[in-house]
Write a structure and sequence with these properties.
756 residues; 29 helices; 6-stranded mixed beta sheet; Rossmann fold; 3 domains; 3-stranded antiparallel beta sheet
């Protein structure tokens, strides 16, 4: 189902999500702020011509530019509006009938000496019905008048955007006695005449009068809320004004969440190179596969007749095998990236706005929790935060975050605050996991660092190239990458303190604590010194990675939001491993973590703490204030969950394999959702099957999960090739990677220059 002409859909079709959110057919509508509206309409002249209904639309439109405007002045006269700061001029011209006066005004704009408005919005009919008591003669005269005006409007449409607003239906039961002759039957007859006559002489021309018929659909749903049965309620006319703004401004402002009326972005130089690379990989893999198949057939036909055994040819050399694996991985990746591009860059599939309801968030949550319980199995080991348990933890958190994103639950503050804890818990695991590895293994080699960096960043780098997005756009990966490097630097710098060394002398424990205190001090300083933070990350080449929209403020905000939780994860790992070494805790199968009395007290405190945080988060009134407290208090619920999950031995000994499976591909799920499950870079929802929301979610989810799983396997395969254990080979690969990024930077600079 191709998207087609999204501008036409925006002007003619759609439906309500809930009571007030309008969803155009096949595309997403951006909600313009005052500043955006001014930037779009700077130095523009807009004219609204018509009756009281057009006057309503005029007021709603100018309130998008200046919300302080009041609806006052001569109701049956012209009303001017001007915003001097942006040089915007908007006029309402009172012409309640399509007659000679309206024709004369429109004709004056077609003459060379008069400046034409950039946008012209015209519409009228109800006055003609009222004045002439709904007579057929009035309709006939209306047809004659609109026939004489149509060529003038079509001429204006060559240089201006011209919209003819069809008449909205009325709510006949509420009409006053003086308006009873205005019936929906008459309105339909007038609308039919206007649609038939307009553009009749320019059907094959690009310069057409755009028919604004969507207002009829909106009125059908909301006219019963009208004050007089004739004029639209305020929320409906505001929707019409926002549609008008989207039709004109989306192609200028190019908002991410405004896909209506946006042309498909042209391929960049880097995207073209990526396309060629993936095409060559696919061709190369097919050639090698054909060669191997022919060799296999020759080998099979070559048999030893005397012994009755086949002669086996020598297996291909390791280099050919590695090349084949490399081409196979890039072949699959190329096909997957084509799907990514088609979903979120080409105007092939439909996109819709999100709409939050409590049921759309909580029902799927209950459903996946029930599924998770059904897949309960015994763990291989019963240690605190063992591998199966951490995979399970990542899995259910990722599924909750996915439901949060697709349901648009960020508008509901209590849910938002709990999701913030889940993101913090991911970072907590980053601190816990990497600290534990370096502390126990003492492996600070380049191989380990490269392996982690490759697995974290491979997919994001490919998406930056294919989807033409900056690295910081996928904010979570830069976040975990930087925190991994901070953990590594903290433990790797002199003196390197690891568990083996600390076991020989307890003073080393104090040395490590001193390192952690220094780290905490640096975090605290940077969090309250935005200028210093921005200076650090504004230096090239860091600026290329962490800038978004020309500055690093977004990166500072994301880093600051969970600034302490990685430190908390490192500290927890240190305390837990120290207690484990001294056998203070019991991790046997079915055994409580501490003595029964201590376990019960800690369990009670943990449950109370967990619930207390939830009550606080649910009572949040202001997102900004809650975000300020979040970095310091999120660890409370994280630690409470860990203790509740691990203190009872029987709970620690089981895990959900369902959640653990998703946990193993959690990073890929988090990143892939941007483009092939959600749409418009997470702002909307991808629609593969229009008209069937539930079926669409099932199909798109199945494809999305399969793709994420496949990318996880591709990343693992390529990690073995790109990051070998041999140091000399690894050094060569690193030089190649450095050359790759240098070339990428060069092409990016050329691309930016051509854009400017």
């Amino acid at each position: 189902f191709p998207g087609g002409d999204t501008c036409e859909y925006l002007l003619s079709s759609g439906r309500f999500l809930g009571e007030k959110v309008w969803q155009p057919h096949s595309c997403m509508m951006h909600k313009y702020k005052n500043s955006e509206a001014k930037n779009c309409l700077i130095d523009k002249h807009i004219a609204f011509i018509g009756d009281s209904r057009i006057r309503q639309l005029f007021y709603s439109f100018i309130k998008l530019i200046n919300p302080q405007v009041k609806e006052e002045g001569n109701k049956h006269g012209n009303i001017p509006f001007e915003d001097k700061s942006a040089a915007i001029k908007v006029d309402f011209l009172w012409y309640p009938e399509v007659n000679g006066s309206m024709r004369q005004r429109i004709k004056s704009w077609t003459e060379g000496s008069v400046a034409k408005p950039h946008i012209i919005v015209v519409g009228a009919a109800t006055w003609s019905i009222k004045i002439h008591n709904g007579s057929n003669e009035a309709l006939a005269q209306y047809k004659i008048n609109i026939t004489s005006i149509a060529p003038l409007l079509e001429k204006l449409a060559k240089s201006s955007d011209v919209y003819w607003v069809l008449q909205d239906p009325v709510y006949e039961d509420m009409l006053s006695e003086s308006r009873k002759m205005i019936t929906n039957e008459k309105i339909d007859a007038y609308n039919e005449a206007a649609v038939r006559i307009l553009n009749s002489s320019s059907r094959n021309s690009k310069a057409k009068v755009k028919v604004f018929s969507v207002s009829k659909l909106i009125a059908q749903e909301t006219m019963m809320k009208s004050a007089d049965g004739l004029h639209l309620p305020e929320s409906s006319r505001d929707t019409n004004a926002m549609i008008l703004m989207n039709v004109y401004c989306n192609k200028i402002m190019k908002p991410i969440d405004g896909s209506c009326c946006q042309p498909q972005p042209p391929l960049t130089l880097i995207q073209k190179i990526a396309f060629c690379f993936f095409t060559l990989s696919i061709v190369g893999y097919l050639i090698i596969s054909l060669i191997h198949r022919n060799n296999y057939r020759k080998n099979k036909s070559c048999s030893d007749l005397e012994s009755g055994e086949e002669k086996k040819l020598a297996i291909s050399t390791p280099n050919v095998s590695t090349l084949e694996m490399l081409l196979h991985s890039f072949c699959k990746l190329g096909l997957i990236m084509t799907y990514f591009y088609l979903c979120d860059r080409a105007n092939l599939f439909m996109k819709e706005n999100k709409f939050y309801t409590h049921s759309s968030f909580f029902i799927p949550i209950i459903y996946i929790l029930v599924l998770g319980v059904f897949y309960t199995e015994n763990t291989k080991e019963t240690k605190v935060l063992n591998r199966e348990q951490t995979d399970e933890w990542k899995g259910w958190m990722q599924l909750v975050i996915l439901i949060y994103h697709i349901s648009g639950a960020s508008t509901f503050l209590p849910v938002y605050m709990h999701i913030r804890v889940l993101v913090a818990a991911y970072l907590f695991q980053t601190g816990y996991g990497h600290f534990s590895y370096f502390w126990i293994k003492g492996d600070f080699g380049v191989y380990r660092v490269c392996q982690v960096l490759f697995r974290l960043n491979f997919l994001v780098v490919v998406l930056c190239i294919v989807m033409d997005r900056p690295y910081q756009f996928y904010y979570f990966v830069p976040l975990v990458t930087v925190w991994f490097m901070i953990i590594y630097a903290t433990l790797a710098i002199w003196p390197q303190i690891v568990q083996k060394k600390a076991n020989g002398n307890c003073l080393w424990h104090f040395g490590l604590l001193l390192k952690l205190i220094c780290l905490l001090t640096c975090i605290y300083f940077l969090s309250y010194s935005q200028g210093t933070f921005e200076k650090i990350f504004s230096f090239w080449p860091l600026s290329k990675c962490f800038e978004l929209n020309g500055n690093v403020y977004e990166w500072w905000f994301r880093w600051k939001l969970d600034r302490y939780v990685v430190f908390h994860g490192m500290l927890f790992a240190f305390i837990y491993l120290a207690l484990q070494k001294r056998q203070v805790i019991s991790e046997g199968k079915g055994d409580p973590l501490f003595s029964n009395r201590v376990s019960n007290v800690l369990l009670f405190i943990s449950i109370v703490s967990f619930l207390t945080y939830s009550i606080w988060a649910s009572s949040c009134k202001n997102k900004t204030e809650c975000n300020e407290l979040h970095p310091s208090v999120s660890v409370v619920q994280i630690l409470a969950f860990i203790l509740i999950r691990n203190i009872p031995g029987y709970v620690r000994s089981v895990y959900s394999s369902f959640f653990a499976w998703f946990g193993k591909i959690s990073l890929e799920l988090f990143i892939c959702q941007y483009h092939i499950w959600l749409a418009a870079d997470t702002k909307g929802i991808l629609v593969l099957i229009p008209g069937y929301p539930m079926f669409n979610v099932l199909v798109s989810t199945f494809i999305f999960v399969c793709v994420a799983h496949e990318i996880s396997q591709i990343t693992n395969d390529l990690a073995q090739i790109v990051v070998p254990k041999d140091n000399s080979t690894l050094l060569k690969r690193l030089l190649c990677i450095a050359g790759f990024f240098s070339g990428l930077h060069l092409f990016s600079a050329m691309q930016d220059q051509s854009r400017h």
